[in-house]
Amino acid sequence: MDLLRVIFEKQHELNKRILKERHGLDYDEICDQQKEDKDTVKNRVEWLLNYNRAQIHESIEMEDDLPWKWWKDKEKIDWENIRMELIDELHFWVSKCQLVGLDPDNLTELYMKKNKLNQIRQDKGYGSSYNKVDEHGVEDNKRIDEIIKNDVNK
Question: Are 16 and 55 in the same domain?
């Protein structure tokens, strides 16, 4: 069972229902990366912002369960609630992925590339001697395939 695929499918079902029942919108249409008309893009941006803000607030709720307030005692940490807040964040994170056209396959592929780039950055002194912008002003994220290929050949 591909658990990431199941999570994406369940989130798709939920978003499709909520957007149709509560907002009269077609989630499939908003997520369709082939549709670039003004209204679809406007809706996609609006919902990307909605999901992003919701994820941020879930993160804040999780943070409030931790003893970060040095002026206040927090004797017991509710780890179960922290886990639930993280799941709430996952709901909104997956929703954002779907809106920008990331499915489990291309999400995994992009993650693996970015993880490899982050390893290369660390190997080459990220934050000190490594410069992620080349002599033409292009960031390494834009040259990720080239950088990974060159690193493998060394």
Answer: yes
Whether 117 and 84 share a structural domain: no
Distance CA 47, CA 56 (A): 14
Alpha carbon distance 125, 140 (integer Å): 14
Query: 58 with 69, same domain?
Result: yes
Could you count the other beta carbons within 10 Å of the beta carbon of residue 133? Answer: 11
- The helix/strand/coil state of 141 is helix
In sequence order, the β-bridge partners of residue 139 are: 133
Encode pLDDT of 82-137 as tens digits.
999 999 999 999 999 999 999 999 999 999 999 999 999 999 998 888 889 999 99
Look at the chain and report how many structural domains it folds into: 2
Q: Are 55 and 93 in contact (CB under 8 A)?
A: yes
On whether both 120 and 143 belong to a single domain, the answer is yes
Tokens representing 22 are: 């509560």
Angle in degrees, CA 99, 105, 110, rounded to 5:
80
Containing structural domain, residue 135: 104-154
Q: Which amino acid is at 77?
A: I
> Degrees (nearest 5) of the Cα angle 95, 35, 10?
25
